[in-house]
Amino acid sequence: MFTPAYFELTVGIIANQQKGSISNIEEILSDRVGTVSGYASEEILRRQYPEADIASLKSPQDGLLKLGDGEIDYFIDYVLSSTYYSRKMSLPELKVVGLTKLSLPLSIASRKDEPILAAILAKGQATITRKEVNNIILHWMENATHRHPSPLMIVGVILAVLIIIALMAMLWRHQQADHQ
Question: Could you list the pLDDT tens digit for every one of the 180 residues in the chain?
């Protein structure tokens, strides 16, 4: 049993910034196209376009790296996850150049023999507004750009603090010597 969909993941076409907008997936099928192996989008694309040579990739990260390296021309993936990973992996040269008609509605599942649980989940989900869902997604996306300090930066900060402490100690000693 599933709750009503609380969000829908749109499948998009990702490419380098130099590529123009794509209005229809058929426009790119003669190019080098990749998608994530095992995703529903791969199965649908292979069924709808059996003549297309679509590369099966390990993960969204793998697809974005191959796209950035020029091994493929277009990457078909969920817009939200590709945007997240391209930010997290510092690949600003990649962008969404088009949307497909494919999407994945997200729902919460429960066992068929647990109708009370399904009802509780549906009621709980109904209390979450569209705005709250969007805020959660925006928060998730903003965290993708959060940078952790490099080891070199940490060493630099520690050295700066130690130098300041040493200078303060020398100044204090100098002042103590002047008072005696």
Answer: 888 888 888 899 999 988 989 988 899 989 999 999 999 889 988 999 898 889 999 999 999 999 999 999 999 999 888 988 988 888 889 999 999 988 888 888 888 998 888 888 888 888 888 888 878 777 766 655 455 566 676 777 777 777 888 778 787 777 777 776
Q: How many residues does the chain have?
A: 180
- CATH classification (class only), 7-144: alpha beta
pTM: 0.68
Domain locations in the chain as residue ranges:
7-144, 149-180
DSSP 85-122: HHHHTT-TTEEEEEEEEEEEEE--B--TT-HHHHHHHH
DSSP the chain: -BPPPSEEEEEEEEEETTS---S-GGGGTTS-EEEETTSHHHHHHHHH-TTS-EEEES-HHHHHHHHHTTS-SEEEEEHHHHHHHHHHTT-TTEEEEEEEEEEEEE--B--TT-HHHHHHHHHHHHTS-HHHHHHHHHHHHHHHTPPPPPHHHHHHHHHHHHHHHHHHHHHHHHHHHHH-
Strand pairing partners for 8?
105
